[in-house]
Design a protein that fits this description.
- The complex is a heterodimer of chains A (125) and B (208).
- With 125 residues, chain A is mainly α.
- Helices cover 73% and strands 0% of the residues of chain A.
- Chain A is built from four helices and no strands.
- Chain B has 208 residues and is an all-alpha fold.
- Chain B is 77% helix and 0% strand.
- The chains are: A mainly alpha (125), B mainly alpha (208).
């Protein structure tokens, strides 16, 4: 494969994948507006009485909207850059999940266990 | 050890198989994507810090006292509009129309500026009320997270203006197309981060 072929190959993948179409952008936009409006509406009107349920619902909406943005605006797919961007994304997501859940989990327990008065200090050596 | 001794007399041969020519900029998009992923990690750290410290008000103002969801909704709309107009800029760039590409880029920049102005108004309003970053751990982490995002948008606008000047001077040449595609990824990425901000900081903050 010559250098020229290589370049054309690359260009082709971009041309199809990286720019998207008018329809794709519009679909992404409409979906994002809906996925943004519903959580705002839920919180502003207090439609669901249970705050815990509302929190879970709006977080679910955020996850879906992030996927929508990734697909329709960032044109993520398994084929772009020979799969390397997807691999980098998956790696990053794993790190993000570890950082977020790890921090929240550890610090929550630290807070809960270090509360003054929670432990009887007389039992300490 | 033995194998080294036997081959010591002969010259080692290296095969540079990877030395075929790459087209200029053929790896830029992947490299830029890797940068965005590392940027994503920065935001993950800031989100983690906010998640841990976000409830420590130090007897100061809580999210409910400070946030105005109407303002945040308008802000979110500005960023969403700027995302779709940037998409239109990319589509007209594909067709090679310089003037309309520039026009869409300008509209994108204006939406970005509107977003920044609203955010700065919100910040100044909060600081005016005494809710400064020094007030509590909640406010420190809030200003760091949202401020870092705003800083990214600021640099995105600077980059956008730079590219508009570039396109005006040299047209939609290959290098400029590549740069516009990088900025496109950057801009949409900032929108993705903003989804996290408005959900976890503003909406969940109001629920507390």
């Amino acid at each position: 494969m010559s250098a020229h072929d290589h370049a054309e190959d690359h260009g082709h993948v971009h041309g199809g994948a990286a720019h998207g179409s008018f329809k794709g952008y519009l679909t992404g936009f409409v979906l994002s507006v809906i996925l943004t409006a519903i959580p705002f509406w839920l919180v502003m009107t207090g439609f669901i009485d249970d705050k815990q349920v509302t929190a879970i619902v709006i977080m679910a909406f955020a996850v879906v909207q992030i996927v929508v943005h990734m697909v329709f605006f960032l044109h993520m797919n398994t084929a772009s850059e020979g799969g390397w961007s997807m691999l980098a994304l998956i790696f990053t997501l794993i790190l993000v999940v570890i950082v977020l859940t790890g921090s929240l989990w550890v610090m929550y327990h630290l807070n809960a266990n270090m509360m003054p008065g929670l432990h009887d200090m007389r039992e300490m050596p | 050890m033995a194998s080294i001794a036997t081959t010591a007399g002969t010259e080692p041969v290296f095969h540079l198989e990877e030395e075929h020519a790459h087209a200029e900029g053929s790896s830029t998009m992947l490299g830029f994507w890797l940068y965005l992923m590392s940027d994503c990690l920065i935001f993950a750290m800031l989100f983690a810090a906010y998640g841990v410290l976000g409830a420590n008000y130090a007897a100061g103002p809580a999210p409910k006292d400070l946030f105005d969801l109407n303002l945040v909704a308008v802000n979110t709309a500005m960023l969403l509009f700027s995302s779709i107009t940037y998409g239109f800029a990319m589509l007209t760039m594909d067709k090679g129309r310089v003037a309309s590409t520039q026009a869409w880029l300008a509209v994108t920049g204006l939406f970005g500026l509107a977003f920044l102005s609203i955010e700065l108004y919100e910040f100044s309003h909060m600081i005016h009320e005494g809710a400064t970053p020094q007030r509590s751990a909640f406010l420190s982490s809030f200003f760091t997270l949202v401020g870092t995002h705003g800083l990214h948008v600021t640099f995105g606008i600077v980059w956008l203006v730079t590219l508009m000047v570039q396109v005006a001077r040299f047209g939609l040449i290959e290098a400029n197309r590549r740069r516009l595609m990088c900025l496109s990824m950057f801009w949409h990425f900032l929108d993705v981060v903003w989804i996290g901000v408005f959900t976890f900081v503003y909406l969940l903050g109001m629920l507390r």
